[in-house]
Amino acid sequence: MKKVLLKIDGMTCSACSSGLEKYLNKQDGIKQANVNLVMNNANIEYDEQKLTLEQVEKFIEKAGFTSLGIDTFEKESKKKGTEKYKLIAITIISLVILYISMAHMVGLPSIPFLNIMYHPVNYAIALLILTIVVITLGKDILKNGYKNLIHKTPNMDTLVMIGVLASFIYSIYGTIQILKGNAQYVENLYYESAAIVIFFIEIGRYIENKNKDKTKEALKQLMTITPNNATILKDGQEVKVTLDEIKKGDIVICKPGEKIAVDGEVVQGTTHINESFITGESVPVKREVGSKVIAGSINYEGTIQYRAEKIGKESTVSEIVKLVAQATSTKAPIAKIADKISGYFVPTVLVIAIIIFGIWLIISKDFSVAINIFVSILVVACPCSLGLATPLAIVIASGNASRKGILVKSSETLENAHKVKTICFDKTGTLTKGTLTVSKMYNYSNEDEKELLKDIASLENKSEHPIARAIVNKAQEDNISLIDVKDFKAIPGFGIEGKTSDEKHYLIGNKKLMLENNVEIVNSEDEQKLISDGNSILFVSLNKKLVALLGVSDVIKENVPQVITELKSKSIDVVMLTGDNEKTANVIANQIGITNVVANVTPKEKAETINKLKEKGLVMMCGDGINDSVSLVTANIGVSVSSGTDIARDSAQVVIMNDNLERINDLLDISNKTVRNIKQNLFWAFFYNVCMIPIAAGILQPLGITLNPMIAAFSMTISSLTVVLNALRLRRK
Question: How many distinct structural domains can be found in the chain?
Answer without folding.
Answer: 4
